[in-house]
Design goal:
The protein is α+β, with helices and mostly antiparallel strands. It is 18% helix and 29% strand. The protein has a 4-stranded antiparallel sheet with strand order 3-1-2-4, covered by helices on one side.
């Protein structure tokens, strides 16, 4: 079963990843060089919904949450 994660950092808006586990979510992020070396992960929310995210920037620029991969920034399509 796939779970959408929102990974918040001390820099920027954060990352959206859909994966089968938190560990896999971080593995997918690392494939793209995230989080960057200057970022510290401050929280991880599993089961995040679009309505809980920034409606002005994250939602309009996100890929589909139902597809495995990094959906914010949009890298899974």
């Amino acid at each position: 079963m796939l779970v959408p994660f929102w990974i918040k950092t001390n820099v920027g808006l954060g990352y959206g990843v859909t994966a089968s586990s938190e560990q896999e979510a971080f593995e997918l992020l690392r494939q793209y060089g995230y989080p960057r070396s200057d970022e510290i992960v401050s929280s991880v929310q599993a089961g995040v919904k679009f309505d809980a995210l920034d409606q002005g920037h994250v939602v309009p620029n996100a890929g589909p949450m139902v597809v495995r991969g990094v959906w914010f920034p949009r890298l899974n399509v």
